[in-house]
Design goal:
By secondary structure, the chain is mostly helical. It has one domain: Orthogonal Bundle (Arc Repressor Mutant, subunit A), CATH 1.10.10.10. It is built from seven helices and three strands, in the order ααβααββααα. It has helices spanning 3-16, 18-28, 33-44, 50-62, 85-107, 112-115, 123-129, and strands at residues 31-32, 66-71, 78-83. It has a three-stranded antiparallel beta sheet with strand order 1-3-2. A hairpin with a 6-residue loop joins strand 2 (66-71) and strand 3. The two termini are 21 Å apart.
Length: 131
């Protein structure tokens, strides 16, 4: 599998799991919107802009998975998001589901060597598949 194809697979996976990615980032620490955008880019190597991230944050907040507060201690006010107890519970359940899915994929023979054509230079893909 060439590098371009791997990047497409990674983008598709992150896009499909973006709500869980955001919850996972907020599990580590409270962040404002731009901090979430840059953390996704830094941790996953893909860019999702404000037109994708802010509506998702609004949905997660309406669902009660995250909450926001205005931070007025900087030059510009920032809306800072944090994980709620409901969000933590959802994330825990999702982690278990992902583990089960990856286990089943491995049972079907999609282990990291077969999936990655024997190339083990993509630890982010390997770790997802070898959970």
């Amino acid at each position: 599998m060439n590098h371009q194809t791997i990047k497409k697979v990674e983008l598709k996976l992150v896009r499909g799991l973006l709500d869980l990615v955001v919850l996972g980032l907020l599990k580590e620490k409270d962040l404002h919107g731009y901090g979430i955008i840059t953390s996704i880019r830094r941790n996953f190597g893909v860019y999702f802009g404000p037109s994708t991230v802010y509506p998702l944050l609004s949905e997660l907040e309406k669902a009660g998975d995250i909450k926001s507060e205005w931070d007025l201690t900087h030059d510009r006010p920032r809306k800072v998001y944090s994980l709620t107890a409901e969000g933590k519970s959802l994330l825990t359940g999702a982690e278990e589901s992902l583990y089960q899915i990856c286990t089943r994929l491995n049972e079907f023979g999609m282990n990291r060597l077969q999936f990655n054509n024997g190339v083990e230079d993509k630890p982010e893909v390997n770790s997802m598949l070898s959970m």
